[in-house]
Amino acid sequence: MKELFTAIFENLTTWGLPTLLFGLGIAEFLLGLYDKHDWDENEKAVDLICYAAPKLLLTPVFAFFSLQALPVLFPGLLGAFAWVPFWFGFAIIAVADDLTQYWYHRLHHEIPWLWRFHRTHHSAPYMGMAMASRQNILYTVFFSQTYVTATLVYLGLGFPALFVRGLKSVITLAAHSSIKWDKPFYKYRILHPVAWVLERLISTPATHHAHHADANDGVGHYKGNFGNMFFIWDLLFGTGVITRQYPAGYGVKHYFKEEWYAQFLWPILKSKKAGSELAAGGPEFYDEVGETGGYELSKLQVTKSEKNKIPLEKEEIELEPSLA
Amino acid sequence: MAIDPAIKKRIFKNALLSILIYALPVLSLFAYLRFTGEKPWTDKNQTPYLKQLDRYKDKK
Q1: Per mean pLDDT, which range of A28-37, A105-114, A125-134 is the poorest?
Q2: What is the mean pLDDT of residues A230-250?
Q3: CA-based angle A133:A137:A142, to the nearest 5?
Q4: Which residue of A has its CA nearest to B28?
Q5: What percentage of residues in chain A have a pLDDT greater than 90?
Q6: Does residue A42 or residue A284 have the better pLDDT?
Q7: What is the spatial distance between Cα A274 and Cα A279, in angstroms, rounded to a whole number?
Q8: B21 in reach of chain A (CB within 8 A)
Q9: Which of A26, A33, A68, A196 lies 20 to 30 Å from A83 when distance is taken between CA atoms?
């Protein structure tokens, strides 16, 4: 039995997860869950580049950390804790990985200057497999739990880590899916006890979609529901809201459809769209009531155009009234 | 833009609780080993599972 589960998770973490992602993505597409107006060429470019580029660009970084840095940081400790019983190792990895990711994620929402590194994940005005991997490159580079888990694997917890990684990836992909697989659990009375446990234990489409909502309206809750694999953290820290409903809209309110390169590489490359959080001299953070984090949008656009001698484009001027 | 003081306070409070949560699985392992008297680290035949790291070697 152990061999069977090991084989399943080994395959899952190599070719299984990409297959699941593409399979779910195709199912979403066939079910008509990608709105043609929302999923335009720029969004497709952001989604695709954020999925593919880190696999090429960041593998050497993670390889360097695992093969070169860890032996220097922890000399002689390779596999030193391989004796840790499986379920304890599983609990150690699950908590270390997912709680670290909870904090990494939460701080990017609660500390204003960090927000723009995470904004790309939230700018998608839709949910689904296309946007599940959508992140700014620096957010991915400093994904703290990657290094925590790599360290624990080096120290000997690689076997339980295999299962945690597999489970976590399936849960987070399923929570981002536009297929609302959790709906039957809320609809049928007999399944309510299962729903009660499920929505408190792990991220579901209802709770995670609420986090991606474009409004904090009771159903949408983008200032909370930060959990990735476990939802328990949100309950413990008071950042969670469970409604069993799905938000009406997704994305960020002040979205300028910034260029794919700015979304992927900010602050290395910046957006040319005046007033954007990703533009040179742009506001750090727009809050939920349309304020601009200390900036007044009209003044900001004038200041920016004057400062950089870039004339405002017609489209950008037209955007202004709806943003004020 | 400065961080909201209420959020700052909540972060600090929750971070303290997190330290305890991080420690819980390790503390429960110690409790288990003490209660059962097991000494699994004395078994020298333990081989670490390092396929996640070996995967990088293959790509070198």
Answers
A1: A28-37
A2: 96
A3: 100
A4: A88
A5: 77
A6: A42
A7: 6
A8: yes
A9: A68
Closest CA to B56 of A154, A177, A273: A154
Whether the per-residue pLDDT at A148 is higher than 70: the answer is yes
Residue type, B44: K
Quick one: which of A197, A190, A199 has its CA closest to A244?
A: A199
Q: Is the peptide bond before A321 cis (omega within 30 degrees of 0)?
A: no
Cβ proximity of A80 and A158 under 8 Å: no
What pLDDT, on the 0 to 100 scale, is given for residue A140? 96
* Neighboring chain A residues of B22 at a CB cutoff of 8 Å: 95-96, 99
pLDDT in the model for residue B60 = 53
How far, CA to CA in Å, does A48 sit from each of A130, A271, A305? 8, 18, 32
Inform me whether the pLDDT recorded for A304 exceeds 50.
no
Residue listed under structure tokens 């593409």: A22
Q: Is B5 in the A-facing interface, judged by CB distances under 8 Å?
A: no
pLDDT of residue A268: 97
Which residues, in sequence order, are bridge partners of residue A295? A292
- State the distance between the two ends of chain B, measured CA to CA, in whole angstroms: 44
| Token representation of residue A17 | 């997860």
Does this model's pTM top 0.90? My answer is: no
Using CA atoms, how far apart are residues A184 and A204, in angstroms rounded to an integer?
Answer: 12
Q: What is the pLDDT of residues B6-56, one digit of tens each?
A: 899 999 999 999 999 999 999 999 999 999 999 999 988 888 998 888 877
Q: With CA atoms as reference, report the closest residue to A209 among A250, A239, A241.
A: A250
Contact call for residues A154 and A76 (beta carbons, < 8 A): no
Determine the residue of chain B that is closest to A165 in CA distance.
Answer: B52
- Is A104 buried (19+), middle (13-18) or exposed (0-12) by CB count in 10 A? buried
Count Cβ atoms within 10 A of the Cβ of residue A295 and give its class: 0-12 exposed, 13-18 middle, 19 or more buried: buried
Q: To which residue do tokens 């409790």 refer?
A: B31
Model confidence at A294: pLDDT above 80: no
For an interface test with A, the pick among B9, B51, B59, B60 (most A C-beta atoms closer than 10 Å) comes out as B51
- Start-to-end Cα distance in chain A: 61
Judged by a CB distance cut-off of 8 A, whether residue A305 touches chain B is no
Shortest alpha-carbon distance between residue A159 and chain B (Å) = 5
